[in-house]
Predict the structure.
Amino acid sequence: MQQKNYEYINIEQKWQKKWVEEKIYETNKTKEKKFFIHFAYPGVSGYLHVGHMRGFTYCDIISRYKRMTGCNVLFPAGFHASGIPSIGFAKKVERKDKLTIDSLKEYGCNAEQIKKLTDPLEVVKYFGNVYVEDYWKKFGFLIDYNRVMSTISPGYKKFIQWQFLKLKEENLLIQKQHFAPFCPNCGPVAVDKSETDISKGGSSEILEFTTIKFKMKDGTILPAATLRPETIFGVTNMWVNPDVKYVKAKIDDEVWICSKEALNKLKYQLDNVQPLNETVKGKDLIGKTCIIPMVNREIPILSGPFANPNVATGVVMSVPAHAPYDWIALGEAKADILPITIIDVKGFGTNPAKQVCNELKITSQSETDKLDEATEIVYKKEFHTGYLNKNCGSYAGIKISDIKDDVKNEIISQKLATPMREFSEEVICRCGEKVVIKQIPDQWFIKYSDQKLTEQSKKHVEKMNIYPLEYKEQLPGVLDWFDDRACIRQGSWLGTEFPFKKGWIIEPISDSTLYPAYYVISKYVNSGQIKPEEMTEEFFNYIFLGKGKPKNQVWSEIRKDFEYWYPVDINLGGKEHKTVHFPVFLMNHVAIMPQKRWPQGIFVHWWVTQKGKEKISKSKGGAEHIAQAATTYGVDAMRLYYAHIGSPFVDVEWDSEAVTKYKNKIANVYKLILQLLRVENVEDENLDRWLKSIMNRHIQKIVDAFENFDLRVASNEIFFECQKNLQWYIKRGGGNKKILNEFIDSWIRLMTPVAPHLSEELWHKNKESFVSNENFPRFNNKDISIEDEVGEYLLSELINDANEILKVTKIKPKKICIYTSPSWKEQVFKRAIQLESEGKLNVGLLIKETLSNPDMKNIAKQVSQYVGKLPGEVKKLNENDKQRYSVDIDSKKYLENAIGYLKKTFSCEIKIYNANDKDIYDPANKFRFAIPLRPAIYIE
Ligand SMILES: [Zn+2]
């Protein structure tokens, strides 16, 4: 019969519509067990790509599985609209950025809509709608859509302000001087790996240089910045770039000469910086001298074309005995200057830099890789085993590893130097401007360094379910390292106003810590049962902390909901959250909530990358639109792709060919099931029992995998192994309608979490309910029939062996004779397995034991040959095989039942013999080779 194709687009849309119409996503508090899962809500920065759907899909698969196991599941979602992304987007629309406008048009926005998107609030509204309608609903997610929320809604802002009141009460809000990333166009920005605000430099760190003031004859300061201020004693000269135009500036009551770029940075870091409209050519400085502060030695200024105006001050101090770069530069400058050794290291001569440069055969400044290596070698050795020597005044004799900030503090306190901060790599704002570091004298911080908070959080990690385990092991270290976080910014950001400083906004990481708790309330806000005005400190104190009394029935209901749903069972998010979001999510709960409301679990997933291991990003091109991918491949195919293509804990490469294979897989399963629903009824006792048994094996394995959130193993079992066994059943001539229907019924339910649309469509071929609301199959021990499993295994292995022989010998068989193993071998094999499990398998003893049976005496030679091989055979077995060998089945009888199938398979005559003791004397000795589950085969 002609099979209809699987019309996935119509089918998927049909079920999505019905699920939403029937509101099957709503929670139902009548059930006993609850499960609260959410994903780290996405920022509102534009269209998402197929990579984002990986984590969202995991969340839906897990939550659907939990629903079907009888849990009452809360799976809410929202948007992280705080911060700068939507403002950045609106700005791009305003300046008619071509890529942005094109992407909007391509998505179907008309001119009028595009015009609206110059308003950041409209951007949030627009993309909020795209995420819900075009991504989550179109992927069939059973998110509780009654609870959708945004971080810039009035209620959420009240919630955030309450949190900061609580942090203050706990003495976890503090003020201190701060140096923060700052964009001259946009104001403060966050530099972190999630790159919310910036377009480049997310892993950059702020390095603290010591800028040492070298004084020239006329009193002008030539500042040079270093990370190793103790090397000041070994400075022999200065390097300035002859081709750079340096500038002068008045800083406090001094006049400095530095690069223009340096002055731009210093302006943001130091007080009282006044540019003096005066430039100095680098080449005019060369040949002059200056004095090393504290050391009071006069040194020459030399030409160093490598002095980069973009790095620190653009002026470099030279320490040729300890800095390989300086040593080589000095050689190339042909200057007549002697290096000064200030650090003694065992094994290094008087000039460590020279020695390492010679060893690595470095001759030119252009060999930067080798020079970096040399610098590293010298630095490490000096740090671990070096001492400052007699050239270092009062510091002589101090170990380098002990010196820490001593020299730095001294020269800074004497005003002979000042700190200067610099990024470890360039940071570019989303607006395109270079990000600088700016001083804020009284910045507010959340005090994550608080010892009690850190210890409590670390201790709680031990009790949490964290996937993967590797992250659970890392997290305490991350918490230790996690420093105070500047939590407010000034400028035009979306977000909540800081309650203790007017005009300052709480930054986006700090307003997304406790947010799952707000999902409990958002439902009541969305339905209008509670108004933001009513959400006072008293309200939140009652809801979350159980303090005070409810003002009305709604308060009581919300409190009950909170007590029922909280804590969060799983917070799922991408690996970019490991060092920022997850730590603050945990610590803020510990800081504010009662202990029994602290999070129970975290699930981290890795990324979908593009070819070449890059994170997918639109700026780098090539990402497919989600809605487009959904129609090209089908939603279930994509869901299966995410679940099956690799472990959640590795990056996977987006591969449209692979997704197409999953698309075909979905269509094949559909066709197969339709075909099976129409088979003619045939019964075969063994085979039918086998199918039931094997289905239960699958169920056991799948449930185990789901319980450990191992979606890859679960989906492999469901979509590949189940089908394989079902095909075997059909090939073997199975066709018991009742058993098949049971199998299909279970199979569809097993598929539902991963491929809900396909499952719903197949389920409705003969049922009325939603399979999404059905129970997940359960393992049933009484349906297990090991004998039949072993029998089918025997048969399939026999066929493999025979095929192997036919392949090698190229015989076209007329007759195949099969000789099953004599029963004594089965008994001995079983005994050997038992002895091995007890650690007592001994060949000599086993032979003796076997020969104690008088009937065996005649075949003593065979017994000893056979038993001699057993230890090796037994060792090769896995647990499944061991179980198979320890079952008694009548192999001959089993194969005789399948003789029709064997005949069909080989198209020839089949003879089956059983070796009884008498047959052992068969002159052809064919039985000698028959062992349990491996009959001997003779082909004529
Ligand atoms: Zn900017």
